[in-house]
UniProtKB/TrEMBL annotation:
Biological role stated in the UniProt entry: The electron transfer flavoprotein serves as a specific electron acceptor for several dehydrogenases, including five acyl-CoA dehydrogenases, glutaryl-CoA and sarcosine dehydrogenase. It transfers the electrons to the main mitochondrial respiratory chain via ETF-ubiquinone oxidoreductase (ETF dehydrogenase).
Binding site for FAD: 249, 280-281, 294-298, 311-318, 332
One GO cellular component, as annotated: mitochondrial matrix
Cofactor binding comment, as recorded: Binds 1 FAD per dimer.
Cell compartments where the protein resides: Mitochondrion matrix
Family: Belongs to the ETF alpha-subunit/FixB family.
Name this polypeptide is given: Electron transfer flavoprotein subunit alpha
Primary residence: mitochondrion
Subunit (UniProt): Heterodimer of an alpha and a beta subunit.
Amino acid sequence: MATRALIGARSRATFRLPASRFLSIGPISRFASTLVIAEHEGGSIKAPSLSAVEAAKSLDKDNSISMLLAGSGPSLQEAAAYAASCHPSVSKVLVADSDRFMHPLAEPWARLIQLVQQRENFSHIVAASGSFGKNILPRAAALLDVSPVTDVIEISESTKFVRPIYAGNALCTVRYTGAHPCMLTIRSTSFQAQPDSTDSKAHKAPISQVDLSTFEEDTIGKSQYVKLTSQESERPDLGNARIVVTGGRGLKSAENFKMLREASRKAWCSRLVQNLLGATRAAVDAGFVPNDLQVGQTGKIVAPELYLAFGVSGAIQHLAGMRDSKVIVAVNKDADAPIFQQLLFKHPMLNWINEPHVADYGLVGDLFEVIPELLEKLPEKN
């Protein structure tokens, strides 16, 4: 098989645009106190919310972190008990127990955040930048009359943040100069939660019930929960996988995606290493795989230890969802595919700025020849 190897070492060096400034209407609190908006399911806190706690730790070394949970029934109480010991940095767990929060509708949740903020006067409010946080935080920010900073990937100071723009091709440094609370959504892949330790399991934060006697909900009738439709699967969430094997338009059919799935199971799947299949938007739109496998700007944001891309050209929108992967390996028959190239960006006030190659390792060749040969070289899993 005739192939040509391309090797590139990606640099994490980026450039900063001039800092954006928000309207200044008051100072941030001198001492940091942060409220983390937590999402829970089945009596456990979801991983992105734990990443939000990690992000809150970066705001201030003496930061007091509270976690807010809302819902009803035994599942909420189990989640509260889990939250109290899930992270040593959590100093308090606030629980709002009411049927009004059984479903994550933006209107009642935003009113709840406003109520808690008026009582506790937090300097920061943080949520993960997923569908849950993106749905709730902007409305809560409007009620509190502040401007949120979204999709933060790095926290330099308590009021200085870095966020991607232009589909991740540029990083913008933002300094918040508005009134408190400073409200953030953070990209969970940039703030990986640390595994539970003995100290965290011994830690128990106090749990307090939120007094809802003065809770005013003037949004009844504006939105209504109808139903939740989801595909049942034994696969873990794509965002938590340590290895992601992605196929693009180059696989040409759903049958060939089955080949890629079998290849990934044989080579890397084990109880110790979670390996999941991903896809580009072009493959999803073509009907090769369901849309819950989509990686990219309009799909899942992933940052696995190893990202394997077969038949992926490397469109900007796809790179925005996987460029933080630790090691990227690409196989494509087009030597000029963007995934093999240097990243270029042009700004009216700047010259061309280059980054090294997107892929750490690249192989130019026909994936229908590469995959069978790869499987021959790899041993069967134990």
